[in-house]
């Protein structure tokens, strides 16, 4: 059976060179981007896990953080074109891609959704981050993106970034906290209430949410507590069968998708083998495992 990894990353060569022209210290600031599999597709093919194709999105390097809205949108369009070409040229590796937006140019981002995402079936949705331009992803300025995606039935991939106001950010815990906070902010903004068709796929199995389900249920109003279970989540926990079981119990099997964060997490190519083993060890039926590995993707994310 084919398996689809819905949350894998790239940093493609042309886009990377453009961003290095804006900030030559990027490799020092983000050491993980030095992983050669992010940009070398032939090397990536050498490390391919048999039977697995990936949905790819860019790592968290956003033009909006470096240039004005007009230039950011131009760089974003070029990056998206490179992303699309990579998927089209490597169908053995990639099952689709997720577009980048420039949230310092909302009008142009909405246009990208209309004339790029909707025009190319290989582009399955858009990627947002937990914070943009120093603001929560649920800031009202970004609401038109949620409204547009809900209207068109597109999925939003939600990826964490550090909150730069904090002095103690770390790769082990901080991103999981930021994801949890962003989920809380989206729920409290009542986006699921306003946009019933909204689909958001959260990295790292929904972070802290399943573990703190009791606190959510007893502290928040019931309609908001219930909205947390409307998120989709992936399995990118570097293994950890019990945590995956908890996520599946909370969000429901139909909301859990095989995702690895490849090629990051475990060198050189990511945690694909570890996560596949953890899914296999889950105390769920074989049909539920197959739903996580492929059928949920085919039923809910695939646009063909």
UniProtKB/TrEMBL annotation:
<keyword id="KW-0456">Lyase</keyword>
<dbReference type="GO" id="GO:0016787">
    <property type="term" value="F:hydrolase activity"/>
</dbReference>
<dbReference type="GO" id="GO:0016831">
    <property type="term" value="F:carboxy-lyase activity"/>
</dbReference>
<dbReference type="GO" id="GO:0005737">
    <property type="term" value="C:cytoplasm"/>
</dbReference>
<dbReference type="InterPro" id="IPR006680">
    <property type="entry name" value="Amidohydro-rel"/>
</dbReference>
<protein>
    <submittedName>
        <fullName>Amidohydrolase</fullName>
    </submittedName>
</protein>
<dbReference type="InterPro" id="IPR032466">
    <property type="entry name" value="Metal_Hydrolase"/>
</dbReference>
<dbReference type="GO" id="GO:0019748">
    <property type="term" value="P:secondary metabolic process"/>
</dbReference>
<dbReference type="InterPro" id="IPR032465">
    <property type="entry name" value="ACMSD"/>
</dbReference>
<dbReference type="Pfam" id="PF04909">
    <property type="entry name" value="Amidohydro_2"/>
</dbReference>
<keyword id="KW-0378">Hydrolase</keyword>
<feature type="domain" description="Amidohydrolase-related">
    <location>
        <begin position="71"/>
        <end position="303"/>
    </location>
</feature>
């Amino acid at each position: 059976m084919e398996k689809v990894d819905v949350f894998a990353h790239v940093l493609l060569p042309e886009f990377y060179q453009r961003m290095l022209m804006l900030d030559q210290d990027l490799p020092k600031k983000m050491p993980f981007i030095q992983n050669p599999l992010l940009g070398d597709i032939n090397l990536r093919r050498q490390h391919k896990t048999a039977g697995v194709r990936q949905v790819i999105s860019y790592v968290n390097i956003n033009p909006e953080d470096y240039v004005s809205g007009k230039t950011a949108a131009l760089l974003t369009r070029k990056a998206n074109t490179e992303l699309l070409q990579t998927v089209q040229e490597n169908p053995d590796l990639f099952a689709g891609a997720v577009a980048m937006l420039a949230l310092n140019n909302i009008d142009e981002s909405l246009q990208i959704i209309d004339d790029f995402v909707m025009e190319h079936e290989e582009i399955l949705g858009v990627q947002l981050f937990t914070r943009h331009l120093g603001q929560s992803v649920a800031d009202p300025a970004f609401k038109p993106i949620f409204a547009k995606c809900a209207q068109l039935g597109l999925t939003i991939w939600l990826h964490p970034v550090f909150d730069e106001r904090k002095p103690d950010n770390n790769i082990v815990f901080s991103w999981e906290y930021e994801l949890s906070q962003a989920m809380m902010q989206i729920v409290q903004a009542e986006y699921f209430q306003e946009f019933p068709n909204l689909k958001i796929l959260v990295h790292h199995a929904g972070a802290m949410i399943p573990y703190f389900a009791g606190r959510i249920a007893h502290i928040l109003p019931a309609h908001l507590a219930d909205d947390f279970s409307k998120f989709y989540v992936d399995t990118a926990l570097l293994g950890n069968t019990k945590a995956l079981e908890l996520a599946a119990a909370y969000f429901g099997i139909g909301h859990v998708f095989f995702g690895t964060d490849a090629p990051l997490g475990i060198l050189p190519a990511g945690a694909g083998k570890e996560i596949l083993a953890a899914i296999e060890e889950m105390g769920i039926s074989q049909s539920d495992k197959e739903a996580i590995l492929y059928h949920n993707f085919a039923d809910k994310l695939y646009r063909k």
